[in-house]
Design goal:
Four copies of one chain form a homotetramer. By secondary structure, chain A is α/β, with parallel strands linked by helices. Chain A folds into two domains: 160 residues, Rossmann fold; 160 residues, Dihydrodipicolinate Reductase, domain 2, CATH 3.30.360.10. Chain A is 32% helix and 23% strand. Chain A contains twelve helices and 14 strands. In chain A, the strands form two sheets. A seven-stranded parallel β-sheet of chain A has the order 3-2-1-4-5-7-6, sandwiched between helices. The first copy, chain A, has a seven-stranded mixed β-sheet with strand order 9-10-8-11-14-13-12. The two termini of chain A are 22 Å apart. Chains in contact: A-B, A-C, A-D, B-C, B-D, C-D.
């Protein structure tokens, strides 16, 4: 297990204009083991306080367009908030330059290049590395994350689904091919690009499903959960856009392999997540607001008419992205897992 | 079929302080065949413009506490927005006084008193009438509504679920006991009582499931859909509270009895609802905003991994309550079905 | 005064993709004296139900790119929702083709070309017509609107400010150069273009001032109010963006020329607006929700520490735009002023 | 100046069921110099994770009904979130028991008992202490706070107004009796009591003024600003309720005593707040979201038509309440001012 460094780790953030980068910066500003030394953008070269007004006077850096070499001079570790496709094109150089990487994109999450190409519509730029990169969900892959130089940080829906399902699948408590994930997310999950469908007056006072049967988190969920069982997993995953900034609630319907009770399920989940500070099993029905602005994930379970319902809440930008990333970073560097995150 | 009356129908609204009464009044103010002659309340006796500020200068009536006799003097028909339990205690008197009734409560929706008592926790006050009252969903029970004196107006979630499922059940396209209804509603569905869990700061920026496995619309959905098949229906119904004023979106997962395609499903729904002006089958995924403030219901269907998904949007206060009530009223009195509702 | 036409007026809507056009269509669909015969767009040529999903099955028209001649073949009257600049380039042709026009843009609201150029940053394309076009606020300019072929429909903030101030200025009750208009608007006022600052996650849970000292409604307010007095008007106008779809609330601070009481002010406003069905003087403090979705404007007044406060609420898309436009249209064609608007 | 204690300060929170208590707990959980030893409530005796679900697994305390003696056994310092009236009845006992107090109520903010009685409608229970308690706005009264045992934490609107106006009044840059404060607040400022006017469906999509000319923060603003000048201050203060959880934006209109420019004003504000880490002077127009969830206050200034506009944003629950309280606590105990607050 790595020892925490004696001096602050210098970190750079790639792709600093979006919402996950903003949350990441806010967390890192509270992390006593970190100094942010660079924030990059290909499009903006303004002071960061102009791009994210909430950082005015809190982080005196300009956005810069930096290459791998320059990054390696400034930083020990990069958090990459770049989009998929772009990321896998620079990761090899960043690793070669000696940088550690927490990657927010989907580029290293899937194990094989064919599945990647099927769901992301382009050839993977760095296929040989696929299948060897640890999936950055610390509750499930903590030991592998500790030694890693490159971590494929989880997606937001996927974290919610996997944390809800892994304890059931691992204990062979549910049928692996009859799983329905009805998930609801705040709008920040869709990013900060100027698109008409993300305008305030389009999203506000409205709720809709999207990407039905086609959302890219589907294969990611199936692959990761599949590791805990011998049988292929099949899920129906239906994401919905909810008029709120942040938060995901997933209501997941699965079929038990034997009769179970709510009490038994809650006890099983509690035991499974007992060592993990950020997953809380609750008796009540969780609301997204309960976990909003935090790195916590709240899970409960019910049995209704012979089906198991798991209902799970987390903050898509924090536990589902930037908070989870810092949790990974803490493990990579030997910091306490909760550092900067409470 | 009744002939439209030559003079405006005098209507009274019972229980006028809540959100469904407000929507009802707004619709009736646009209905040229109606004069609102009384609005009642047991608790408030103020001008209605003080209880509903949006009605200031639009309806010059005071809320009054009126008995059946007084109501019969003032009105031909009552829309009752009273809560369940209370309603069935006065309906017999109202009918005896010669009034027609559109009842918003659940009191006459279920067919038997035992089921009512099981779900509503009290003995039904008027059990002999149960099973003889028409269920007020005009797309399905139009002919019976036309001659009725008492109509049990549908619930909001139930309208959404039944309109989505009836065409499938009737055509025996789905298994009757493997149906999951994941429904999401705006907060107005919970009424206007001062409860902490309905405060702005509790609901805003938050989404949660509630009443899991216990919501009172469950037996109503099962009973009504069950009429279209020989087999008992079993649904898992999970309502969610969404941070928006109004609108319901239901994402419904069912198991086809044979292979079907999306194209076939959409064609089937289009044919089924072809005569009905307020149900629109859409190719795209509907948003609650598309039907908000209207009496329209938008439905689409998808096939994902061997399951049928129907995704349906309507306004809980209008198509799910007050608009549907006026649609029933129009049929009862021989007005055009769409009168006041376009 | 014009007589209402015996056959439905054929109307075309220019620039049909935005929010004001959508509201206009919804109102006109309820107006029994109108048939919508065309909706234009320079950028989209889709069925209107795809551009505005809420119109699916309600209006079976395709957006088209039509010139003045084609418009004149199809329509008697056009409602133009085109932006400023573009509008004044086609209005002369539309008038020449015999069309009546209700213009939503600012192009014909100001009386002189120099002021227009100063605030709108380009030369006016049709300067000779300026100063001769009636300002489309029916409560103040009804008689002139009745005979008009071209009406410059009011802006949303301007309607709010002018309705609040005209009774005071006309009666010389306030100092004409010490007026502060602190106005708050829902986001729909900013239109439907894909701009980052209008994204849901930028606007939601946030409130900010914008255009301080520079908003283009300033000269419009000053010019119109100025007509009721001999002295030039000077206002400080501060608009704010509020996280809600629609509604404007203006809190206006002015200095009385003599001691006045709240009672006196409310009586004065009531008398002033007595003949006008859509302006309601209320004793309570109005909320935007009270007028939301309606063509009504609620006004109250207070006296605080020697200043008059008028607090006014209206729906920016309806009374502030499309509802007011139909009110103008009704006057132009001799329909009852409230037709389609209750 | 006090030295930071060598062991964590034991703190108790009085009145733990509301929103300010929740924010306070979240901040204190991050403060390494503090242990929360008790949270009280007169009405609830549940685990705190049931009253505030977001604290589940984060703070394992039960709400208790504790008297001054019990509090003194458990704690060194209390943060009192009790309402006005109640607070001043127990503060003497708490002080006598040796506790330090940060008081969130208004009970010790005003200097004289008559003004208190006029605005709060009851006789002050502890009048002799009035006028001797330091006002807890650290940017203005830091030195007096450092030695204090009892601090009257500022109100939320008052902090916003005072931080905006103090630099102007102190430098005699504005007329002291021609100040208009048009303030807009999120709904959390109104507390967590179950009142109909605070329901989601009443507040959402709505904006209104309230307490016009009567809000209790008026005398507080006037008294505190008045200390910086010889002349009595008179403000018109108009609060508005905005559909968002949190945040205050104040747009303040004042009359300069001499010609000033925006540049000069911004420089003056920057110099005034240069030593203070939580007040940031910005060039742009601040949004409430920029300061939401933080202890920062953003201020800008403009000159429009001979008036000064200051536009100021802060989080009502943090800088306006619980964050400011911890800032006071830090000064009282000799901790770094920013501890727990970045």
């Amino acid at each position: 297990m790595p020892q925490p460094p004696s001096k602050p780790v210098h970190v750079a953030i790639l792709g600093g204009t979006g919402y996950t980068a903003l949350e990441l910066i806010k967390i890192l500003l509270r992390h006593s083991g970190v100094t942010i030394t660079a924030v990059t953008s290909r499009t903006e070269q303004k002071p960061i306080g102009q791009v994210h007004q909430s950082l005015a006077s809190r982080l005196e850096l300009k956005l810069e367009d930096l290459g791998p070499k320059q990054l390696a001079e400034r930083a020990d570790c990069v958090f990459s908030c770049l989009p998929h496709g772009v990321t896998a094109e620079i990761v090899p150089e960043l690793l070669a330059a000696g940088l550690k990487i927490v990657d927010f994109s989907a580029d290293y999450r899937l194990d094989d290049a064919a599945t990647y190409q099927e769901w992301y519509d382009h050839k993977h730029p760095d296929p040989t590395r696929l299948g060897k990169v640890v999936y950055g969900l610390p509750e499930l892959f903590g030991p592998q994350i500790r030694g890693a130089n490159l971590v494929a940080n989880n997606g937001c829906y996927t974290a919610t689904a996997i944390l809800s399902l892994a304890p059931l699948v691992k204990a062979k408590l549910i049928e692996p091919q009859d799983i329905i994930i009805d998930a609801k997310s705040g709008v920040s999950g869709a990013g900060r690009s100027a698109k008409q469908n993300l305008l305030y007056c389009e999203c506000n006072e409205s709720l809709s499903a999207y990407g039905v049967g086609k959302h890219r988190h589907t294969p990611e969920i199936e692959q990761i959960i599949g590791r805990f069982t011998g049988t292929p997993i099949e899920v129906i995953f239906t994401p919905h856009l909810v008029p709120m900034d942040r938060g995901i609630l997933a209501t997941i319907y699965s079929k038990p392999t034997r009769a179970v009770t709510q009490t038994e399920l809650l006890a099983h989940f509690r035991e499974f997540y007992q060592p993990h500070p950020f997953v809380t099993i609750v008796d009540h029905l969780p609301a997204t607001k309960d976990t909003s602005g935090t790195n916590f994930c709240h899970i409960t379970a019910r049995v209704v008419r012979g089906r198991i319902l798991t209902i799970t809440s987390l903050d898509n930008l924090i536990k589902g992205a930037s908070g989870g990333a810092v949790q990974n970073f803490n493990l990579m560097y030997g910091f306490p897992e909760t550092m900067g995150l409470l």
